[in-house]
Write a structure and sequence with these properties.
- The chain has 104 residues and is mostly helical.
- 75% of the residues lie in helices and 0% in strands.
- It has a single domain, classed as Up-down Bundle (Chorismate Mutase Domain, subunit A).
- The chain has helices spanning 7-36, 42-46, 48-65, 69-93.
- The protein is elongated.
Length: 104
């Protein structure tokens, strides 16, 4: 990737990346919603051990990709917290539909 020649170009590239990130987050959300159907209770949704596993993986990937591991951790923790809130709301509302083979 060539260096941007202006602030407008930097912003344009950021906007394009943001569009890709939104699409990827929508894909992640769909998977989170599927996972919610397999979780029986709030503890299963919160899954602190899994959270730490995902955060550590993000930090490792970040280091390999040239992203600050601290930035990656902060972003992943915020993202995970938002998706946990979504899952909990869906469980409370009864919209986390059971799937065949789940443990409900």
């Amino acid at each position: 990737m060539s260096d941007p020649a202006s602030l407008a170009e930097v912003r344009s590239r950021i906007d394009a990346l943001d569009g890709e990130l939104v699409r990827l987050l929508a894909d992640r959300q769909a998977l989170v919603r599927r996972a919610a159907a397999f979780k029986a209770d709030e503890q299963a949704v919160r899954a602190p051990g899994r959270v730490e596993q995902v955060v550590e993986a993000a930090r490792a990937r970040a280091a390999g990709a040239g992203l600050s591991p601290e930035v990656a951790e902060a972003v992943w923790r915020a993202m995970i917290a938002a998706f946990i809130d979504l899952e909990l709301a869906e469980h409370k509302a009864g919209t986390a539909e059971p799937r065949p083979g789940n443990r409900h």
